Structure formats: C-alpha cells, structure tokens
Amino acid sequence: MEKSSIVVFIVCIGFFYFIKSDVAEVKQDIITINNAIGYVKIEQSAISKRLDVRELDKLYELKLTKNAEVLGDISCGKCHNSSDTALPIRKISVSEAINIVRFGSEKSQAGGMPIYKSFNNGKDAFISDSGLKQRLENLYTDDLLRTAVSKDR
Ligand code: HEC
Q1: What would the pLDDT profile of 33-50 be if each residue is shown by its tens digit?
Q2: Per-domain boundaries in the chain
Q3: Measured distance CA(91)–CA(87) in Å, rounded
Q4: Quick one: pLDDT at residue 1?
C-alpha cells in the first residue's frame, strides 16, 4: 500500500470516529429532551386535573345557590337544599325529573317526597306544570348536570 493511501485511510478512520461520537451525543441529547418533555406533560396533566377539581367545586357551590334561588320559596326547598339533596341528583332529563315530581320514584317516596298534583284541590301538595318545568329547567342544565351521579344509581 502506498504511504499516501495509508494516510488517507487513517484520516478517514479518525473522521468516522468523530462523526460516530457526535451521533452518540446527539442521540443522548434527544433522550434527555424527550425525558424533559415527558415531565412537562405529566406536570401539565396534574395541573389541569387540579383546575378541573376547582371548577367542579365552583359548580357544586353554584348548585346550592341555584337550588336556594329556584326552590327556596316553595316546599321543595325544605328537602332539596344540601350537597346530597340539591338538584340535579342524577343525570336525567327535565321530563324525567318532572315525572318523578308527578308520579314519584322509589327513592323520592322512601324519602317522604309527596306526589305533587298540577292543580290545587285544597288537600294534596301541588305545583303548576309551567312553574315546575321552568324551575327544573333552571336546575337540570348542562353545567349542573356535571355534578350529578349516573341515572341508575
Ligand atoms: C319531604 C322532602 C321532599 C320534598 C318536600 C320534595 N322532595 Fe324531591 N326528593 C326527595 C327525596 C328524598 C328524593 C329522592 C332522592 C334520591 O333519589 O336520592 C327526591 C327526588 C326528587 C327528584 C329526582 C332527583 C334526581 O335528580 O334524581 C326531583 C326532580 C325532585 N325530587 C323534585 C322536587 C320538587 C320540584 C319538589 C317540590 C315541588 C320536591 N322535590 C319536594 C325529597 C323531597
């Protein structure tokens, strides 16, 4: 082999060696950056969950305020006034809620809720159709339904 090709050969080996170690470094950097991104993502999801909790807290407060506002002046407010009893309790529609007021559910009757007639006969509990619908529409809103438990609980 000629002297000059040996020199070229050695230079090439040196060159490849440097490139290889550079690549290894870059790979290491990428791993470090990926790890950092991973941590940021975990932190971000933790923070957004905490925000969700805060938002839900606000909704629960709003639920109590709304129940007092909407039902406070009539007999319903005597029972539906705490974090457990404020409406909506379950994720049901306004018409399903109306049915419970008119015909009762197992739980409402067990808890002593009267069955409300839509007219005043002088002896039974009553609430007008329009009054009932309007009040329940103010409570069974998309926002407040987020605080309700599932229908079959
Ligand atoms: C004597 C107490 C009492 C009174 C008064 C009362 N309720 Fe109830 N109500 C209950 C109980 C107990 C339940 C069953 C709670 C459960 O399912 O966990 C209930 C359930 C309901 C539900 C179903 C809740 C859900 O989302 O699952 C609606 C709607 C409702 N009541 C509306 C009314 C309205 C409107 C009035 C007034 C016109 C009224 N209630 C008066 C005790 C009462």
Answers
A1: 999 998 898 888 888 888
A2: 3-145
A3: 10
A4: 67
Q: What is the dihedral of CA 15, 20, 21, 23, to 10 degrees?
A: 130
**What are the tokens at 45?**
């999801």
Q: How far apart are the first and last CA of the chain?
A: 88
Of the listed ranges 2-6, 32-36, 47-51, 57-61, the least confidently predicted one is: 47-51
Tell me the three-class secondary structure of 72-116, residue by residue: CCCCHHHHCCCCCCCCCCECCCHHHHHHHHHHCCHHHHHCCCCCC
Contact 59 CB / ligand 1 (< 6 Å): no
Q: Which amino acid is at 75?
A: S
pTM for this structure? 0.77
Tell me which of 83, 108, 153 to substitute to probe ligand 1's pocket, judged by most ligand atoms within 8 Å of the beta carbon. 108
Mutate to test the pocket of ligand 1, among 71, 74, 76, 83 (most ligand atoms within 8 A of CB): 76
Q: Which amino acid is at 123?
A: K
Cβ atoms of residues 71 and 106 within 8 Å:
no
Write the CA distances from 77 to 7, 23, 68, 99, 111, integer angstroms. 96, 72, 7, 18, 14
